[in-house]
Design a protein that fits this description.
The protein is an all-alpha fold and 134 residues long. The chain has six helices and no strands. The protein has one domain.
Length: 134
């Protein structure tokens, strides 16, 4: 089943590349990974997401067999992967419809807002942890 998702993702990247140019493929790829990390961070926190999925242990090349044990659990929650893919496609679609500078500014504003929401969500759990151990 994962091979179908990989084939679909590759097909979408090819279509994006033909529709919006090669730089849009890079933008879509990076926005997918950043969004996926942020969606997981909303649930776990920044440090816990980094530690849980062993992103600090990944060694190049990324497609090496030893890295699969760290990458595959990231895709277990299909809803989060779908959200990240939707955000990547929306950014490319908006860049085709609107001026690129407007899309960049809007993306940075939404990114800053979402990061602040993650910090706000984690602040409550940090206070609960402090209350338990003091």
């Amino acid at each position: 089943m994962q091979k179908w998702f990989l084939a679909l993702a590759l097909a979408v990247l090819i279509v994006i590349g033909f529709a919006a140019g090669p730089m849009s493929v890079v933008v879509a790829f990076l926005s997918f990974w950043v969004t996926l990390y942020l969606v997981w961070s909303y649930e776990l926190g920044f440090k816990d997401t980094w530690a849980r999925y062993g992103l600090h242990r990944v060694k190049p090349p990324f497609w090496a067999e030893e890295n699969k044990i760290w990458f595959l659990p990231i895709f277990d929650d299909r809803l989060k992967v779908l959200k990240a893919a939707a955000v990547a496609l929306l950014i490319v679609a908006f860049s085709l419809m609107l001026p690129v500078s407007v899309v960049r500014i809007a993306t940075l504003i939404v990114l800053a807002w979402y990061v602040s929401e993650i910090y706000r969500a984690q602040k409550a759990t940090d206070q609960l942890d402090r209350a338990r151990f003091n």
